[in-house]
Amino acid sequence: CSQMVKVQIKCSSQTFDGVEIDTSAGITNFRAVILSLSNVPPERQKTLLKGKLIQADKDLAALKDGDRIMLLGTADAVPQMSSSTKVVFEEDLNDSQKAQLIPGAASAGLKNLGNTCYMNSTIQALRHVPDFKDALIQYSKRPNAGSLDDLGHAITFGLGALFATLDNTLDAIPPFAVWTAFRLAFPQFSEQDESGGYAQQDADECLSQLLTTLGGRLSIDGKPSENAIDKIFGGEVEAVLTCDESKEEAASKKVEKFRKLRCAIASDISYLHEGIKKDLEEHVEMNSTSLGRPAQYTKKSSITKLPSYLTVQLTRFDWRKDTQKKAKIVKKVDFPIKLDLQSVCAPTLKNSFTVARRLLKAREDAKQGFKPSNLLSSKPNGDKNEEKTDNNDIDPSIETSGFYDLVSVVTHKGRYADSGHYVGWCKGKGDKWLKFDDDVVSQVSEDEVKGLSGGGGDWHCAYLLIYRRIDDLKEETLGGLLKKEKASSPSSSSSAEPMQL
Asked: Is 212 helix (H, G, I), strand (E, B) or coil?
């Protein structure tokens, strides 16, 4: 059981009073607490109690309430450039040095603590979701947000503090506090391999556990009623269940929430949108009330609410009985930099996208000097191929046309989920991309990112994708635009002015 004591820790000019230490959690956890407070890495920490080093579990067990601990060690700091720094031209830099020059790029890497690339790559992918990062940093600045013996708080606080540190340095940081709390909270990530070190883990499982843990902690603008994870990553689908063996049995509908979509990988899947669509339709066996026996059902889901950030997992790993491992499917599945989700959305959402896309086209037409199309017409510009829009079935709150931009990719290299190597690839400013291979960060091109679609043997294959929703209509809601156009139509008022696009 936990044995908590409150101590004072003094480091240089800083003093931390009332620090809670679990003396039963071991020296590793103690060093993680020190790191979260002082930013002094474990390898540089020297802690003394009454002149004696604290360096083993037995030393920690001797701590009592009110003890004063002295911390020696240099904290990681933002590197300062000397005014006499020699001028170096960009063409003389290597890829890693070029990565540090990208304006606004969060280009600091994370040190591998022993098969922790699955966590490092996931953290870097999430770090490039601004709303997520900001919520975590704000949490880490809140006084009395929680106790460090609460592992959910320790993970949330530690990750926020880590993000804040990474934003202010170009040096690689060991994510020691987050990793320690994460392993304590989820013992399966403490499994050891044959050599006695920590075993490789699944990045998707890491992501799911992180979001679940953070979902109980993070809020939007400090409002406890607003779960930040659901606000950022949450979407909804309408699932329709029909009995394949009874036409008389009425279909049932229900709304289900999701934080990620899956892309099924099969012989007939070559593109991401095909895999997403395939996964949204499944066949299940369940008891039929009309037939009085088990029967086959088809469950078809369509998106009714789009998340601000969409996470897609490509189902690349399949359990093999012969090897008792999750083997990787290396089939090539192309994913776009700009993703269109209209084909997997519910009719109401589709209709709203149609009008939103007409608006965007009308804006482009206006820029080119053409007469803008009428938003309410069923087929603008005489386009016979466009679906007819039911203007009474449009959600006026929609601010997007259903397009997403790719911001992060997590890839896996190797044949099995519990081996190999994970790397994060994240979008910087403009068309610049960064490759996060643990502590090594380098600049890559968009074409290199597109080449992560698989099919190349043991080369990196995209496993997790994070897309940002493009809010084309953020400044003017669709409902307002439709209202303006109705007011300016010939049937309303002869003096009405035409809508300005």
From this structure: helix
Residue 443, pLDDT above cutoff 70: yes
pLDDT tens string 378-428 = 454 444 445 555 555 555 556 678 999 999 999 999 887 778 899 999 998
Provide DSSP, 33-78. Answer: HHHHHH---GGG-EEEETTEE--SHHHHHT--TT-EEEEE-PPP--
Global confidence as pTM: 0.74
Residues 6 or more apart in contact with residue 250 via CB below 8 angstroms = none
Structure tokens that stand for 176 in this block:
């020691």
> Within 10 A of 15 (CB to CB), how many other CB atoms are there?
10
- Choosing from 11, 117, 263, 461, the catalytic residue is 117
Measured CA to CA, the distance from residue 134 to residue 451 in angstroms comes to 31
117 part of the active site: yes
The helix-helix angle for 130-141 and 151-166 (nearest 10°) equals 110
Catalytic residue among 421, 426, 460, 461: 421
343: pLDDT strictly greater than 90: yes
Rounded-to-integer distance, Cα 152 and Cα 215, Å: 10
